[in-house]
Amino acid sequence: MAKQLIECVPNFSEGRRPEVIEAIVAPFRERKGCALLDYRADADHNRMVVSLAGEPAPVQEALIQAATVAVSRIDLNRHEGGHPRIGAVDVIPFVPLRNITMEACVDLAHEFGRRYHLETGVPVYFYEEAALMPERRRLEVIRKGQYEGLKKDIQKPERHPDVGEPELHPTAGATAIGARKFLIAFNVNLGTDDIGIAREIAKKVRASSGGLGHVKSIGLALKKRGLVQVSINIVDYEKNALYRVLELIRMEAKRWGVPVVETEIYGMVPAAALLESTAYYMQTADFDASQVIELRLLEMLGDEK
Amino acid sequence: MAKQLIECVPNFSEGRRPEVIEAIVAPFRERKGCALLDYRADADHNRMVVSLAGEPAPVQEALIQAATVAVSRIDLNRHEGGHPRIGAVDVIPFVPLRNITMEACVDLAHEFGRRYHLETGVPVYFYEEAALMPERRRLEVIRKGQYEGLKKDIQKPERHPDVGEPELHPTAGATAIGARKFLIAFNVNLGTDDIGIAREIAKKVRASSGGLGHVKSIGLALKKRGLVQVSINIVDYEKNALYRVLELIRMEAKRWGVPVVETEIYGMVPAAALLESTAYYMQTADFDASQVIELRLLEMLGDEK
Question: Going from the N-terminus, what domains does chain B have, and what CATH number goes with each?
Answer without folding.
Answer: 5-179 (3.30.990.10), 184-269 (3.30.70.670), 271-305 (no CATH)
